[in-house]
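R.M. (postdoc): so does anyone remember the format we settled on? I'll just put the structure tokens first.
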């Protein structure tokens, strides 16, 4: 297999563990290898997989999960995908000698810990200098701010990628990584203006 195949294999097994964690049958996801000359084998694999999924029933119903609960879980996981890929980046690059070893490569305890220790990011209003670097670097425009305005992270939009932490100049150190505790509420809009000290002549 080439590097991309190993990465795909790792991602699939990681996703299967995540599916287990949120109560979705991991048999709904499968990876198989076929080349361009194996049309018959490809058709057989697809027919088999399709039959298996039909036996499992509609997504959510087959697992006894309420539709709204399922939607909420999937939306939450989707938001965390960038964070998960960053946290598990080194492990996803590992190439195991035996393909079967990937079945136990990610453990249930590991995934539970991953979700339990999800990091959040917060901009300390006392340290923010409204330089705009984190705001411009955020890949999902989750940071609100402007000239002379303390920047604030919209936690609903934030994908936990940590770009803001890396972008914030060390001399300011305004962005904080928070894990295992709630994020402080954002500073009220009317209090976000930074009073710049005028230079003495």
């Amino acid at each position: 297999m080439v590097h991309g195949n190993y990465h795909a294999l790792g991602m699939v097994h990681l996703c299967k563990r995540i599916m287990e964690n949120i109560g979705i049958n991991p048999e709904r996801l499968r990876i198989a290898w076929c080349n361009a000359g194996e049309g018959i084998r490809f058709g057989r694999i697809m027919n088999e997989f399709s039959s298996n999924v039909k036996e499992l029933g509609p997504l959510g119903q087959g697992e006894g999960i309420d539709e709204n609960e399922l939607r909420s879980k999937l939306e939450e996981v989707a938001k965390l995908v960038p964070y998960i890929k960053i946290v598990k980046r080194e492990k996803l690059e590992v190439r195991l000698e035996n393909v079967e070893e990937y079945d136990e490569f990610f453990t249930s305890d590991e995934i539970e810990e991953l979700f339990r220790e999800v990091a959040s990011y917060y901009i300390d209003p006392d340290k923010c200098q409204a330089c705009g670097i984190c705001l411009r670097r955020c890949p999902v425009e989750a940071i609100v701010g402007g000239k002379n305005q303390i920047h604030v992270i919209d936690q609903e939009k934030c994908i936990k990628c940590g770009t803001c932490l890396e972008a914030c100049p060390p001399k300011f150190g305004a962005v904080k990584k928070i894990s295992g505790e709630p994020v402080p509420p954002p500073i009220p809009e009317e209090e976000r203006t930074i009073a710049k000290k005028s230079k003495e002549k």
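R.M.: ...and that's the designed sequence above, right after the tokens. Also worth knowing: The chain has a mean pLDDT of 90. The chain has two domains: 3-116, 119-191.
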